[in-house]
Amino acid sequence: MKKKKVTSLFDKLKLEDKIDCQIRKSDLRNQNSIRRASELSKNLDSLSIKDQPH
Predict the structure, then answer these.
(1) Distance of CA 15 to the CA centre of its chain
(2) From what superkingdom does this record's organism come (predicted)?
(3) The pTM is what?
(4) What backbone torsions phi and psi does residue 33 show, to the nearest 5 degrees?
């Protein structure tokens, strides 16, 4: 009985670790997409300024 509790706790920790990893990965992905989006919007801004006749 005691051993089962230990393994379930260990499994729980492993599961939490996996979830942490997934969260970290998705956070990185979000940061990258945010960075890409801001770069794109900057490029669009400079493009629209160039396209306007002076």
Answers:
(1) 19
(2) Bacteria
(3) 0.50
(4) -70, -35
